[in-house]
Amino acid sequence: MSLARTYAITAILLLGTILFAQTNRQQACAIAFYNMENLFDTIHCEGKNDYEFLPRGVNRWDSKRYNSKIENIATVVADLCDTYNSAIIGVCEVENSNVLSHLVSNPKLKAYNLKYIHRESDDTRGIDCALLYNPLLFTPEQSTLVPYGDSGWQNKTRGYLVVRGKLADEDIHIIVNHWPSRHAKSPAREYAASRVKAIKDSIATHHPQSMIAVIGDLNDNPDNKSLKEILEARRELAECNKSSDLYNPWWNTLRKQKQGTVVFRDRWQLYDQIIISRNMCDKEGLKYRQCHIHKPPYMLYSKGDYKGFPMRTFANGEWRNGYSDHLPVVISLGR
């Protein structure tokens, strides 16, 4: 056999292997969400209350601490990509595009060639929502930031990042959220739910075949009024009649399995959720398989008063060099 023919056969086999691997990856992928807990850089952003995360601020947020935070978050994101083949990772509590650029450039994430979508919000502290994505699996086509609106709550806060694109060649809309915290009363989150429902209904009207995923830190549990009554996210798939009706698989995760993503007042809560339209569950092609809370041991305290709780960046005013006070959530999709 000639050398040229040998090279040609090798090239064909290699190309076949690559195409086979890419096809397999598109057969099963995932959508994830992760609250990154105060991913600030060390530079003051004019008009934002970010003073605690500056080198001379109360947290002494210098390059060492910032770079360590990027390393830790990159470890988690790489895990989400590798373990679940995450095509899309919604995130919140990121200060700006600068921190996202540093994150996706981290050597731990180089292999995934992650891109990001970010829109600056009106949030008083300067923390925003964003979307990381693997361009081999997801192709964004349009994005917009819908303002939070006027609920009567005193603080300006982040809006709702809406991204439309193709996930493994299928149309999908992602709505990334970070609703008002528990320091606000329930009506502030109920108002957010009403805004997101209006967005969802508009998508269903104009793009009736599109899958829809409402993802984020909602600061409410699945059975709270904002989600149960206002957003109308159902506990069981059988309760969803129309293709755009929302199914919330996390309800049973919290109430039956007693699992959560964040500890609030010493109790597990499940504020981080990925809520999906019915047509992501009963359609041909890519569809919902199962949900996961990503909970590797390295993200948890191994001893002390906080044993088993998420290892956060600061606790009791001390730098703990942790990851986040939230655990990521993931839904797996397959054909």
Describe this structure in words.
By secondary structure, the chain is an alpha+beta fold. It contains 6 helices and 17 strands. It has helices spanning 3-27, 63-84, 97-104, 186-206, 225-230, 250-255; strands at 28-39, 86-94, 115-118, 128-133, 138-146, 160-167, 170-178, 211-217, 233-234, 246-247, 262-264, 267-269, 272-277, 287-293, 314-315, 318-319, 329-334. It has one domain (28-334): Endonuclease/exonuclease/phosphatase (Deoxyribonuclease I, Chain A), CATH 3.60.10.10. Helix 2 packs across helix 3. Strands 5-6-7-8-13-10-9 form a 7-stranded mixed beta sheet. A 6-stranded mixed beta sheet has the order 3-4-2-1-17-14. The protein has a two-stranded antiparallel sheet with strand order 11-12. Strand 6 and strand 7 form a beta hairpin.
CATH superfamily grouping: Endonuclease/exonuclease/phosphatase
The total tally of domains equals 1
Lateral arrangement of strands in the main beta sheet: 5-6-7-8-13-10-9
Q: How does CATH name the architecture? A: 4-Layer Sandwich
**How many angstroms separate the termini?**
41 Å
User: In CATH, what is the class?
Assistant: Alpha Beta
Q: What is the approximate shape?
A: globular
* Helical stretch tally: 6
Rounded to an integer, what's the Rg over CA atoms?
21 Å
